[in-house]
Design a protein that fits this description.
It is a single chain. An 8-stranded mixed beta sheet has the order 1-2-4-3-5-16-6-15. Helix 4 links the parallel strand 3 and strand 4. It has 10 helices and 16 strands. With 404 residues, it is of the alpha/beta class. The radius of gyration is 24 Å and the shape is elongated.
Length: 404
């Protein structure tokens, strides 16, 4: 029995006011990183009374809630991240945050939507095949909450192995509101950080020959890095490196002893992630040597690429089409260069990650402020459909896994 036999959107609409209220209360109190005590307490309150087995994190403010269905079947994980960003909100909303942080990436909607999915599936517990694990995760924006949850036993919390995992991320712009989008294989890039410090010898700006200037190799390296990408990496397995931080001396007439460069680097494959770190290190050392300096390189792998299981991605598109109509299910043509720590879950179990576009009606999706902007706005009138989509994904996976 697929979700065609259940009106998840209609049932979600019936609890929409509760979900919107929860989302807006969460929006007022965004918390950062892995320590979200107020957010965790609000979610636990919203889950109270449901037939869930709840485990909270030991080292972080996570929640894993297990719903056991009345019929045998697989174990499906649904994920919602809960943390905000250190962004001062500038939306003018009457429920805007005033604590100096902001839910500028829509994680308040993810959290409320996952609560909604738990309510929807709990209402059909007797007919539910298998088990659903609801993953309420802190720290997606940093330092990363998925990996600590996995290390604390998330995939074993139900007592049965997780067979598939699904996650949903709202988007503030770019596509028709109400549209869901996903793709098989690589969907999002890895996130990595490159830090290079060039060490020279300080001196006076009027007599540079008496110093060893670290600024010169720093500037050369920044340009050479882009050339390295175009000459050493295939355009069909792209790499994006963006220098975001430069730091040298303080005084204009002084040559500093060291100069620093920081960059974010996105790759679509593990092979390129590992290779980029090696090549960038060799490049920095060679340029530094040419200027009589030394280079200190730190290459940090933050999140791996987000790779969808092709079969799960196709199931997700079928589910969205069946639940909401064909116009709202789109196959994503190319991977995005953003990153997501749900990738750690998808490294361990098959699953799919989806985008959900919910630009407010008074904004143009082509020009609306993007996620992470102080002006980012999301239409929480679409929140109930997000909850319905998550519930339908778990339901349909279990139905197809046990069919025949």
């Amino acid at each position: 029995m697929t979700n065609a036999n259940i009106d998840f959107p209609g049932e979600a609409q019936a609890i929409s006011a509760d979900l919107v209220d929860l989302r807006r209360r969460l929006h007022r109190i965004p918390e950062l990183g892995n320590d979200l005590p107020n957010t965790q307490a609000m979610v636990l309150e919203a889950l109270a009374g449901l037939p869930l087995e709840i485990t909270t994190g030991e080292s972080l403010s996570s929640i894993a809630a297990v719903l056991r269905g009345g019929l045998p079947g697989p174990t499906v994980l649904l994920r919602g991240d809960m943390d905000g960003l250190p962004v001062i909100e500038d939306t003018g909303l009457d429920f805007a945050s005033t604590n100096g942080n902001m839910h500028a990436c829509g994680h308040d909607l993810h959290t409320a939507g996952l609560v909604g999915a738990a309510r929807l599936l709990a209402a059909h517990r007797d007919q539910l095949r298998g088990t659903v694990v609801f993953m309420f995760q802190p720290g997606e924006e940093g330092p990363g909450g998925a990996l600590p949850m996995l290390e604390e036993g998330l995939l074993d919390v139900a007592g049965t192995p997780v067979d598939a995992a699904f996650g949903l991320h709202v988007q503030a712009r770019l596509n028709t509101p109400g549209t869901f989008e996903t793709r098989g294989n690589t969907m999002l890039a890895s996130s990595n950080q490159l830090f290079v410090t060039f060490h020279g010898v300080a001196g006076h700006g009027s007599t540079p020959s008496t110093a060893i200037d670290p600024i010169a190799p720093l500037l050369e390296f920044g340009q050479a890095l882009q050339t390295m990408i175009t000459r050493r990496f295939s355009v069909f397995d792209p790499v994006v490196a963006t220098v975001t931080n430069l730091r040298g001396g303080e005084a204009t007439n002084t040559i500093p002893a060291e100069a620093f460069l920081g960059a974010t680097v996105r790759t679509l494959s593990k092979e390129n992630t590992e290779r980029f770190g090696r090549l960038a290190t060799d490049l920095a050392n060679s340029i530094a040597a040419g200027h009589g300096c030394t280079a200190e390189v730190e290459w940090v792998n933050k999140y791996p690429p987000t790779v969808n299981d092709p079969a799960c991605a196709q199931l997700a598109l079928r589910t969205i089409e069946r639940t909401f109509g064909a116009a709202r299910a789109q196959n994503m043509s190319d991977p995005g260069m953003g990153s997501e720590d749900f990738s750690y879950v998808l490294e361990r179990v098959p699953g799919a990650y989806l985008f959900y576009y919910i630009t407010p009606a008074d904004l143009d999706p082509a020009t609306a402020a993007t996620n992470h902007s102080p002006q980012a706005r999301f239409d929480d009138g679409f929140l109930s459909d997000g909850a319905a989509a998550l519930a339908a994904l778990a339901w349909d996976y279990a139905a197809e896994a046990t069919a025949g």
